[in-house]
Amino acid sequence: MPYATYRSLPIEALYDLLTISVVDLIGVLDSKPYNEEALKELKKQIEALVVLIGEKKQGIRTN
Prior knowledge:
The protein is mostly helical. 84% of the residues lie in helices and 0% in strands. Helix 2 packs antiparallel against helix 3 (36-62). The chain is elongated. It starts with a helix and ends with a helix. 5% of the residues are buried. The model has no long low-confidence stretch (mean pLDDT 91).
């Protein structure tokens, strides 16, 4: 999903995506051998979601 699309989502949807991403990450970590590409992609996705959630929370607090 493009970053701009993530930015347009409400915070509740970002939390839902974060939850799904963490569940997916656990699934990849449980697989043997690890899928390194999937790990990299999920890490980037989770990092982006955490940053966006933080930005949106800051925006909610300042408005």
